[in-house]
Amino acid sequence: MAVLVKSFAADRYERLLSRRTGGDPVAMAREDVAIRIRVHNAIRAVTGDGGAAPTPAQLNAGNYQKHHTQFQGLDITIVNPRGTLRTGVDPGGHEWAVSMANDYGYIRGSLGVDGDHVDCYVGPCAASEFAYIVHQRRAGDWTAYDEDKCMLGFADEASARAAYLLQYDDPRFLGPVTVMPMAEFKAKVLATRTRPQMIKANSLVIFRKAFVQAYDRHGHSGAVIHVNAHSTRTAPAHGAPPVLSFRSGASAPADFRGYVKAGVPVGVSLAEIGPGSATWPMISAYARSGGDVFVDSGAFTAFTKGQPVDFDRVLGLYRQLADSAKGGRLHFVMPDVVGDQAASFDVLTKHRASVRALIADRHDALVPIQRGQLSPSASWDRVCNILGTDDFTLAIPSNEVAFDLDDIRELFSGTSRPARVHLLGVAADKAKLGSIVKLIHQLSPSTTITSDANRLRAKVGQGRAVTEESARQRSVLADDRWSTTDITELMDRVLEHTNWLTPAQVRQLASDLGVTDPAEQEAWIIAHRAFGLADLINDADGNGMMTEHAVRGLFAHDADRAVRSGARSAAITADEKSEHAQLDLFGA
């Protein structure tokens, strides 16, 4: 009964949303909150057990009844169970409401540097090997830390990110994510009770809390618990945010798939892929799952070849990807002319409407700046004026037209500084660019830094990691190369489908089944186009013994290709996991 009611309520919620009054975004947000509460109350009226709300004294003491659970030996108190509704009012007076997609609470016996318990979300994967700590950003000041949320019970980083984003209405809350093995996480958490300084290990802010807004917690029983706004002690700064490194050069399906399985940020280029490529649908699917995908315009590749770039086409493809990645966030490199500052401003001005539309849809716009008549800080101001916002990532060249340390110092010398900086096309070399990262962190500790680096280039070749692991994986998969190909489906297609095989493939199949006369083979081709090959194959091979062997031979090349692709993906995934290089390329 409860399941049916909730299903109906979800449908009702979507219908009510579709009837909202347009126009004022604040009014729409308030109407959205009102609808959520109406639907939640309707569910509660039918399925709730009418439990009593806690008394004011219990609320103040925090000793009202809560749920408790265990996760891999950690005792956890669940403050907001999965499926309950949490509502409140933000500092601007706007109401908000969110349905809890996972259990939310704190780890008992823990003590963060702020003196409070360590908060966490608990997902469905009881055997997860890693904890994922989200360094949350502050609403309204997206350059600053707010607090940290620990994601437990999630299969991979992409799942943890997706679960986190379900609880927030703006993806900008999601800051860098620290990936930590569960054994290390448990040791740190359990040691905090007597040794809270251990959470400072590796110069990372692991657990940190901030000002908590007042909110109402709606329980399964129907009780409404009001939690007053409160502040906790401010945690000391333990280091700058880590650098998020996209693994670029992953436009091939096998490469992209390998990085996705490793759960790391990945990068592709429109110079190498398009809507017809096998990688194309993977991009939006990974983004929807919470993965980070960097999409390059291909401008630098065109620059090296002396070719122009059709930015109308590029932005049209960006829009296709954005529309297919609803709920996800993609990182798009915006139009520029490599090495030409004035021309870059002109092309950005021409396409500003498209750029602003992507920003409005909460995608990350990476806007490159070039050296030229204007200084780096003046270029930053100019781009802000062109777009009418500073809600974008400033992209800094790192190759032939690279900025040096003096350029970086000048960029951050003004009163207005970029909140997000991306280092374009860096080499996977800590020594080469570590000084730039360190300098940015010194000049502007709250600035988030991302980068894209082709890591594969240094790992492919005789005796190198990915190549050697690919060979090992192929030797394993080759023992049963048909394990990656459905032979039953192939047999059905060969027998029953029309106009599916090429004429050359039909001739080869007929020959393998003993039909060698060219005229008869031509009859097979005509039959395949008209009504399929089932009758002819049955006549040639009544017991079917030869047909499966012939089909395997016909598609042996495809099976081998699937093996090579699978081996390459597995090698990339294994290499990423062996390095534990989930986030920070430079170790900053």
Molecular structure report:
The protein is an alpha/beta fold. The chain folds into four domains: 1-47; 55-227, no CATH class; 244-462, Aldolase class I (TIM Barrel), CATH 3.20.20; 469-569, no CATH class. The protein has helices at 2-18, 25-47, 56-61, 157-165, 182-191, 253-262, 280-288, 299-305, 311-324, 341-350, 352-360, 376-387, 405-411, 430-443, 465-477, 487-496, 503-512, 518-530, 534-540, 545-554, 556-579; strands spanning 67-71, 74-80, 85-89, 95-99, 103-107, 118-122, 130-138, 141-152, 177-181, 215-218, 224-227, 244-247, 266-269, 293-296, 330-333, 364-368, 393-397, 420-426, 448-453. The strands form three sheets. It has an eight-stranded parallel sheet. Strand 1 (67-71) and strand 2 (74-80) form a beta hairpin. Helix 6 (253-262) packs parallel to helix 21. The longest helix is centred in the last third of the chain and has 24 residues, at 556-579. The radius of gyration is 28 Å and the shape is globular. The protein starts with a helix and ends in a 9-residue tail after the last helix.
